[in-house]
Design brief:
mainly alpha; single chain; three-stranded antiparallel beta sheet
Length: 486
């Protein structure tokens, strides 16, 4: 069996669309599941759409996600160059080979004539844009005379006019189209540059791609590609067309519509491992109930036949849930390392970072939520004393005042400001008052944070922010409660 060879062939046009990253992932997994080769090819022939620095975005995104390529522009290989613009000299000869075999022809129609043709089609109510094959049957003598005279030309593929063309796709099965619907597409433009539709077929053959994995938007072009393979007598690769990634039932996910790219999601605090895990499931279903996978597990379980035909709806809540699971899998030290920069966006004061992170980790879905969750550690906002009222703990403003007035002198006298000593002091107070833990400690959390939900209870918050700030906030809370309960 021939070794699996797949490619990811992006255009360097800026950000990394999540659909593009999913295609790269599926191509990588298809190759690596069979111990094959994953190739990176940069398709930069559309010079007008190129964005400076975009190639680095491609490199960095793939590397961040562990999708390391075996061959590519920066690492070389036996099938280079791996940048399409560096391969320009070889395409025209293949197009001329098709002309010689009767599968392509020279077309001398000018832009003015094509514009006039389109106006006529519009007036007649026909589909605008198709070519009327005016130059399809020019004699070899006329063709040579016009080329010798310096007339500009394109080379067009000569599509069969009758019958049907079919191809097999691993996901969509056998697809058949009427040849009468196929356009005599341009292969070589007037400047000698190949079109994408021609260059990608030639490159995929020369690089010996066993599988071609791309979006389902290319399904309509694949009959033309198949006819090119047949005209050259080349082996046809295994086609795998992936369903589109949709924002909702009617709209594709698009950066132009404000939808997040991979870089946006990382900037919002999603882990690259979680994004990749989610993209795996965005149009593909594993066997069994497990959904949380690392890259090595993905390689092991990968089966491209389980890609779905239906469009995949991008569900940010599902991504949040998967991200939370990946955060929980981190070691405490790993979480501190990634969470600390987010904490420092809103907290500049000295804190017990490890204890704060230990409390944040099980509560954190997305790192981008952290700054707002911990901002109270530096900046205490005004709050409604109704927060002290809790039916579960049987507390209100009056009991809260009693609890804080009990704790204040105890905390003031503590010289060992540690979790054990604070907890022991609080337990002694609970026993002395003959109350429940929540009755005493729930008000402490409100006094220190001014909010109902915090990363940790009152005693942990006291340790996290230190003795001086703890006493200052408790005194402020007592003064506020004395005012409202007077």
């Amino acid at each position: 069996m021939k070794q699996a060879r797949t490619r990811f062939a992006p255009s360097p046009t800026g950000y990394m669309h999540v659909g593009n990253l999913r295609t790269a992932l599926y191509a990588f997994l298809t190759a690596k599941h069979e111990d094959g080769s994953f190739v990176l090819r940069i398709e930069d022939t559309d010079q007008g759409r190129l964005v400076e620095g975009a190639v680095d975005v491609i490199y960095n995104t793939l590397k961040e996600n562990g999708l390391n390529w075996d061959e590519g522009p920066d690492v070389g290989g036996n099938y280079g160059p791996y940048v399409q613009s560096e391969r320009m000299g070889l395409f025209k000869q293949y197009a001329e080979q098709l002309v010689a075999s009767g599968h392509a022809y020279y077309c001398f129609c000018t832009e003015e004539r094509m514009q006039e043709l389109h106006e006529q089609q519009k007036a007649a109510g026909e589909t605008v844009g198709h070519y009327d094959r005016k130059c399809r049957d020019l004699s070899p003598e006329e063709v040579q005379q016009r080329i010798a005279a310096g007339e500009p030309y394109v080379i067009r593929q000569k599509m069969p006019i009758e019958g049907t063309t079919s191809f097999d796709d691993l996901i969509y099965g056998t697809i058949e189209v009427n040849n009468s619907e196929l356009e005599d597409q341009i292969l070589i433009k007037t400047d000698g540059m190949p079109t994408y539709n021609f260059a990608n077929v030639v490159d995929d053959h020369l690089m010996e791609m066993s599988h071609v994995i791309r979006g389902s938007e290319y399904l309509s072009s694949t009959p033309k590609y198949n006819l090119l393979y047949q005209a050259f007598g080349w082996d046809v690769p295994t086609y795998i067309h992936c369903p589109p990634v949709m924002k909702d039932a009617h709209n594709k996910l698009s950066k132009r519509n404000g939808d997040a790219s991979y870089q946006d999601l990382v900037a919002q605090g999603y882990l690259s491992e979680a994004i990749l895990n989610y993209l795996l499931l965005l149009g593909w279903s594993p066997k069994g109930e497990e959904e949380i996978f690392d890259l090595e597990e993905m390689i092991r379980i990968w089966d491209p036949s389980r890609i779905n035909k239906s469009p995949a709806i991008f569900d940010i809540q599902k991504l949040r849930a998967i991200n939370a699971m990946h955060i929980k899998k981190l070691s405490d030290a790993q979480f501190v390392a990634i969470a600390a920069p987010w904490i420092r966006q809103t907290v500049a004061s000295e804190i017990d970072m490890e204890l704060l992170c230990a409390n944040l980790k099980p509560r954190c879905e997305v790192l981008g939520d952290i700054p707002e969750q911990v901002a109270f550690l530096d900046t205490m906002q005004e709050y409604d004393t109704a927060l002290y009222c809790n039916k579960k703990f049987k507390t209100n403003e009056q009991t809260a005042l009693q609890a804080l007035e009990t704790l204040l002198p105890i905390f003031t006298e503590l010289t060992d400001w540690t979790k054990d000593s604070i907890s022991a002091a609080c337990q002694n107070a609970v026993q002395a008052l003959e109350v429940k833990n929540g009755w005493l400690l729930y008000p402490l959390g409100i006094a220190l944070s001014g909010q109902r939900s915090t990363p940790g209870g009152g005693t942990d918050l006291a340790i996290i922010m230190g003795k001086e700030k703890t006493l200052a906030r408790m005194n402020a809370a007592v003064a506020l409660l004395r005012t409202v309960t007077a």
